[in-house]
Predict the structure.
Amino acid sequence: MPTTTTHTPVHQLARYGYAPFLLIGLNGIGFALTAAGAPKILLLLVLATAIGASFLVERVIPYDPEWNTDHQDTTRDRIHVAVNETLILASVAAIPALAAIVPAPGIWPDRWPLLLQVLAAILIADLGITLVHLASHKIGVLWRFHAVHHSVTRFYGLNGLMKHPLHQTVEMAAGVAPLILLGLPVDVASVLALAVAIQLLLQHSNADYRVGPARYVLALNAGHRFHHLKWAGVGDVNFGLFTLIWDHLLRTYSYDPARRFTSDHLGMAAKPDYPTGYLRQLSYPFTSEGACHPTPTPSPSSADPGDAVRHAIKGPRAM
């Protein structure tokens, strides 16, 4: 069973300090660097620190020690991260050109303090990404590409960016396009890009960290594991990237503090043999096998009695 029983000062510091260190500390450093006009490349050093901290804490307080071992997916996931993080950075770099093509109406609150601008950008982006994420579980053509992300059978920081690049592009466009139309400044976009990367590390982390009641509002790993349950309908919950606010409003929120997870609960019950190689994952959504075909899928009540809670929501992943 995945569990962490150690209670040394180091473990306690990691358990309660890791999330604030990334959410407040590293995001705060990125914010301060940007506000001071520092070169944007320094944000990559902040991201590298976040990745290093993720790997370290996952080994100090693992939720499941087995998820720290290679499942013949480490190299593939690193390629996904490199490609998709490059797409995120490219989208930020393209903002001045896009602003020239699509003049903003001048309603972005650029006179607000930078911190408030960043928080506003996060909330707006979170709504757009949440809606596309939800649509990706309902619309077959989107699910074809989103299924790449749901093929994971372990939770650790890097698989937050284990996504098909086309779906990554669609998701980011949904989050960023409204901001560009409002006149999003490049500095705000840079801090937002760092926040997205840090959030994905936290959301898919194998670290057994704690955030108290904030777990009901912030889209972190405790809630996001429910999103990766492999049964159709059961995993169609908790779509938010930054927050669970929109999930509460959309009635797609689900959480049970007593629920424990193993690799047997993750992935896709309808496609247990989903391709695992990087190039095959890129091409698979374009093949007939990558479509949604009716396939008998064990119901949560028969496969795992603890998962009957959300079986009412249907979508293409049921196929």
Observations:
- Residues 293-314 have pLDDT under 50 and may be disordered.
- The radius of gyration is 19 Å.
- The CA atoms of residues 30 and 43 lie 6 Å apart.
